[in-house]
Amino acid sequence: TSLPTTTTTILPKMHSISGFITGDVIADVSVKLTGKAAKTITTNEAGYYKFSGLESGYYTIIPQCEECDFEPHNYPVQNLMSDLYNMDFISTFLVLLGLLCIETRHFKVL
Fold first, then answer.
1. How far apart are CA 74 and CA 11, in angstroms?
2. Of 12, 43, 64, 101, which one is least surrounded by beta carbons within 10 A?
3. Which residue has the higher pLDDT, 11 or 98?
């Protein structure tokens, strides 16, 4: 007689990336994820965002808002192997007036 065979499927461990947008604009900011997975989500009223269900791999996190500048401009993630927290950005609201772009900290000519 032969013994029954079983097949075991090993699923990849899933991870998450999260953080806050602070500064001038925090709610309803689009945050884009590129790399092994491509997703776009929106921050909540507290500026919080979270990408879940991510496999190990390389990613870049990019906040997006036409009226804002961000520091840093993006976060490259080199081979995600565990959950990442505190991937935070600071937003600066931009106001366009004629040929000048007025930031909250300094002036610059467009």
1. 30
2. 12
3. 11
